[in-house]
Write a structure and sequence with these properties.
This protein is α+β, with helices and mostly antiparallel strands and about 425 residues long. It is built from 14 helices and twelve strands. It has a five-stranded antiparallel β-sheet, sandwiched between helices. Strand 1 and strand 2 form a beta hairpin. It is elongated, with a radius of gyration of 40 Å. The termini are far apart.
């Protein structure tokens, strides 16, 4: 650079504070979402101080000017408009430092623009590389498509989870990868330009199945082009955990039969699906003299006996489409589906009682147990499930008052009262 003779530069305290204010005011009109107002003020004041020092000698320190611009970019003042809005302040600093000649001003402004452009390009490249790394390595499946659902590009996770190569997916309708029963809804949502969510099974090449949760949303690029972005996550393990918790909430942990909550839900669904003439059997079962087994052999033996009783009950009703539940210590309930009659109930319950009479060999002990049964038969329509259960309990009480190993069955009609014990 040609040397132009100028007078000695001025010291920092000689620079009017108004340059800080003017530069800050000018930059405040730029789009700077990554920098707070207080940070901008500090960054500009620091820049003024460093530029003043860089311009204080006979010749401007151009490298410092470049670095000052780069530091502004690093601080968050990365809008390209920053360069144009900084020119008046740079010119003011140059002139007051004795470098007002045109070539000096041009060199200072040029160095500032060069430093800014280089830093902005490096920052953009770093951001792009970071986003590319995230896109390529994230465990989330990502698909970029058109607003009507045609696939433009997918990331490696998408390829792995779908079991399909990206080259085979480009230009194909993305919604076809969703469960069939959800495609119309998703396609309608896509056409309306709205966000959608979807969950469903996804078959794998090895014959297994995973569960995917999808979120799709519209996006617009800086150039104004519209896209649809899809994000998918393998939720198989979360679903298994949820299903396990749900199962535990509805089943007895000892016998693995349904619990009372599950029983009431089943009776409610049965009542809702029955016709007015469909008869349902609800049977309350209670083990006879179970307490002495616990008292004599301990609760561990008693629990093992309950497990074996549950197994025998299930074996006795195989193919009968019964619903079995444990509702108390030694209390069980069996629900016979609609379409049954008294002969069928007597036949199956008698077989169940016979199966439970067979000796049990548990923990080196030979045990015997019988079961008393109180059953009610009639249409569920018009009756609350809890009331029907109470009626079965009353009939069970009637059976037990007549001795052990008894079976009592009572009928009722849709418009009649539920049975009560004599």
């Amino acid at each position: 650079m040609a040397k132009v003779g100028v007078g000695p530069g001025r010291r920092l305290r000689d620079i009017p504070a108004t340059i800080d204010a003017e530069w800050i005011e000018s930059l405040s009109h730029c789009a700077l979402p990554q920098i707070e107002s207080a940070q901008l003020v500090e960054a500009v004041r620091t820049a003024v101080g460093r530029l003043t020092a860089a311009l204080a000698g006979e010749y401007p320190d151009i490298e410092v000017v470049r670095q000052v611009a780069a530091d502004l970019v690093a601080a968050g003042a990365a809008d390209p408009v920053v360069v144009a809005r900084s020119v008046p302040s740079l010119c003011g600093l140059a002139e007051r430092a004795g470098h007002g000649a045109a070539d000096r001003v041009a060199a200072i402004v040029g160095a500032f623009g060069e430093g800014f452009a280089r830093a902005a390009a490096e920052a953009a490249e770093a951001r792009f590389e970071a986003m590319e790394a995230a896109y390529l390595n994230t465990p989330v499946a990502i698909v970029i498509g058109s607003t009507d659902g045609m696939i433009y590009e997918v990331n490696p996770t998408f390829e792995r989870l779908m079991g399909v190569r990206a080259s085979d997916l480009r230009g194909t309708p993305g919604y076809r990868l969703l469960p069939p029963d959800q495609r119309e809804r998703v396609l309608s949502t896509l056409r309306s330009g709205q966000r959608f969510t979807s969950q469903g099974p996804l078959p794998q090449a090895d014959g297994t199945e995973i569960w995917m949760a999808w979120t799709g949303l519209p996006a617009t690029s800086r150039s104004g082009r519209h896209y649809m972005l899809g994000f998918g996550q393998d939720i198989t393990e979360q679903r298994k955990a949820t299903e396990q918790l749900k199962w535990q909430a509805l089943h007895d942990p000892l016998t693995l039969l349904a619990n009372r909550r599950h029983l009431l839900e089943h009776l409610g669904r049965t009542a809702g699906s029955c016709g007015p003439l469909d008869t349902v059997g609800v049977c309350a079962l209670d083990l006879d003299a179970f307490k002495p087994v616990n008292d004599r052999h301990g609760h561990l033996i008693g629990d093992q006996l309950l497990v074996e009783v549950a197994h025998r009950m299930q074996a006795a009703v195989v193919g009968a489409d019964w619903f079995l539940a444990r509702v108390g210590g030694d209390e069980f309930v069996a629900v016979i589906p609609p379409g049954t009659d008294t002969d069928r109930i007597y036949a199956i319950l008698s077989g169940l009682q016979a199966a439970l009479r067979e000796p049990y060999h548990i923990g080196g002990h030979d045990l015997s147990i019988t079961v008393s049964v109180g059953a009610v038969l009639g249409p569920m329509t018009g009756h609350d499930p809890t009331q029907v259960l109470d009626a079965a309990d009353r009939v069970l009480y009637e059976a037990k008052t007549n001795g052990a190993d008894r079976l009592v069955l009572r009928r009722f009609t849709a418009d009649g009262d539920l049975p009560s014990s004599p």
